[in-house]
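Changelog excerpt

This revision adds worked examples to the README so contributors can see how folded entries look when concatenated. The first example is reproduced verbatim below.
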Amino acid sequence: MNEILESAEQMIGLISSKIWPVFLPFMLAASAYISIKTIFQLNRKTTRRSPMHLKNVIGPASVSLGAMIGTGAIIGVLGSLSNLAAQGQTNFEAIAIWALIGSVIMIPLSYSETVNSKVMKKMPREYISDFLGRWAGFIFAAAFAALYIFGFGGFQFSGIDAVVSIVAERFADTSLSEMQRYVFVIIPVILIAAVIVLSRKHSIFMKAMTYMIFVAVVCYFAFFIFFIARTNQYIPTYFARMITGMQNPVNAMFGIPLGLILGMQRVLQTAETGLGAMAMAAVEADTKPREAGLISLVPTIITVFVSIFVTSYVASYGVSVGAASYPADSIGRLGDYIRTAVEVTGYFGLVVLCLFTVLSALTTLLGSYFFLSQLFSDHENRNIIVYLIVIILAGTLAVFGLNIVFDAVDLLLFLVAALNVAALTVYVSGPWKKYRFR
């Protein structure tokens, strides 16, 4: 079984490494085109001014933020840092700058895709089917569901697994076997998610995600402020290493900096811009197009900061004091990250990270089912069965073969983003005109 997983991991990783350098220029150009057309032309001719009401922020922002933020985003960033280090980029902090550059172009796309979806009154699968064909819409829906349930869900299971392992080592002086972690950690989380899904009560989803993600984000910001206060002398070094790394990049195909490729992948993964998630979350609120677009920026900006800048800073400090080393395998780098946090912030950091990991894992798992129900709205029983099967698979691989999850996420990100951005490019190039004011 291990040989099969390793072969699959290598094949998926090879495909992803070849596709992204080709896809990235298209993604950046198309995103800029969509955003410029939407903000400066379509906005005036298809939407009216509307203020952003706080009461309307809570629902869609909670769904988006709940599905985005958490140890899955942290694991993704740590994986990119490790990949940079493996390719000879010793100043891996540069990924924060590359991600910021990507965000400047990509974050406006979050606004644009939400506005355009609200104008069309169609979710991504529907307008992709209209502009690219029915099969393209189905492929998008299947890839999106796999990305969120299997990919992002697998990351969250891995986060819980790592936290429990570290707590057991630190306080019980014991090392849990893979099977013990699977039985006593992963299975209970799966059962909790299953109970909530099987309840079939939509209001439980919304209320649970709203409260849990609020607590998780507040706790994580408190942890980072404490971490910065304890390590403020390292801040100049962090920025110096960031600039040095950007000035001396390791290039991939076509001379594109590898840091830019990895940074863009992480912007797509953590902020979910260009994936259609914002548009689907906006369905939950009775908002006007411009208001929905502005609301979509809230979780996007929060997630980019929390996931990329916070993670790269903590990891950088860990390497500088010898608490972490790169490259490393997926479990090792997450473990080093948590150990670094605990060494600096003590029990406070450990408690916060444990709480953050558990709450964000549950919100991601609940959010992934929400999106599955949006994509395949007429098949509730089948959705539940598929969801339970996939999260069991994700939880199993989180313990016994996580690296394949990481590689699968990058490939699925490409597939989902490519279809969504291509459809939006077609829309802003002409079909939008039938939605203009008469």
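The second example, added in the same revision:
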Amino acid sequence: MTAVTITVLLLVIGGFIAFAIFLQLKEQARLEKLRKVTTLNNQLRQVRRYLDEMPPQYQPKDMRMWLFSRMIAIYDQLIELQPDPTLTRRRGHLAEEMAEFQTNTQKRRAKPMNDELLIIEVKRLFESFKSYLILSQKEKTIDQDVVYRYSKLLNFYHYKVNSDYHAYLARKAFLSGQMDTAIEMYKEALSQLTPIKESVEAQPAILKLKDLLQEIEDDLALQKAEEEMTKNMDSEDEGELDDEWSKFIEDSTFKTKKHF
């Protein structure tokens, strides 16, 4: 085998190896791109779930705005990886939704916490959102101070959701005229906030519950006082009637004896 033949064979083998490496790198790049796309799509669904399923009373406006901004940023990354008119259209609709929410001054209607299974699901959302905040902090898509503030709020909401459930039961009992049950439920609602009663976030909720409880207790005390007063008046009336009847009997007896 001549030197030329050997050189040609080496070049062929080297070219084959280089081509195989090129194909392997290309496949790795394709798989990495697919992995990124899958991860971003999962994040889209996750953030959309926070936006749609987290009750409005546990989602301050700035928190919701941040979630909107995260979804738009994720759409931008997806469009850069795989340009798609559908993705572009969805991003546009999301931007409109965000702008509409930002300019809307009307307070969003609270979702009633009227079911224990709902409370469990909402608490799971809180825990999931906490994990997402930690991940976002690592990815530098949110400030540490904001993460701290949102984490404190989520800790407060973890207790408040139970308190709101008992407050709902108390309100329901009050509207049904079951005052004693309403008082019991409002006291339980306050009790649910005991672990965080010193926190700034809990103070307005505690004051509101105390005011509602005091109002019902005052109404109930007034109602009992009126019932007692009515009862006493009825007793006095009955006593007067008895006295008049006795006097009538005595007068009749005296006249009969005198006539006799």
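Reviewer comment on example two: The helical segments are 3-53, 61-81, 85-103, 116-138, 144-175, 179-192, 203-259. Residues 59 and 234 are 56 Å apart (CA to CA).
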